[in-house]
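Protocol step 4 of 5: obtain the predicted structure for the target chain.
Materials: sequence only (see below). No template structures provided, no constraints applied. The aim of this step is simply to have a reference model before the mutagenesis design in step 5. Sequence pasted as it appears in the construct record:
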Amino acid sequence: MFDLGGVLIENITFDSLNDLLPEPQDTQTLQNKWLSSSAVRSFELGKISPIEFAESFIAEWNINLNADIFLEKFTSWPRGFYPGALEALHILRRQYRIGCLSNSNVLHWGKFGDLKENFDIALASHLLGAIKPDDEAFIRTLDACDVEPSAMYFFDDSAANIHTASRLGIRAFPVECIAQLLKTLHEEHLLP
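Step 4 output (structure tokens):
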């Protein structure tokens, strides 16, 4: 089970967000604030519309942009699959069921078409009704995959998500780039 942004898909969220903030912050601080943001959580749980998200986020983060311009920028933050990511997925898929579990939203999820071409199971927070790092996101994922926690490998770039998955008995690995992911897959003897 793979997170998408920052693991398989290039995601410039935190660099781009820093450009919009009155005072830049380090990536870990931004990540933590992002995961606890009420605007982000509501949007990535599918509870509010894009315009409601933009207005709430702008107010919450003290950003000096109108909602339409912010949404245009926001939509561009996930770029595309890293070089080598799809090839690795295709190799893995010959031997394993693979999936993705991503905190996402209607704008970002729609950018990548039918992810079922690359995954056996494609789960997004706004469709699942649960969000990482909450236990419920992982519990619903285990149910959707119909596996015990110890049978699942999980790769994510968020320490909070790794912590929750590990606590629930999932084999969780922190990876912060495609090179680190590929190295970990080789070390775990998942990729030849």
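Step 4 remarks: Residues 50-61 form the longest helix (12 residues). The two ends are 18 Å apart (CA to CA).
Proceed to step 5.
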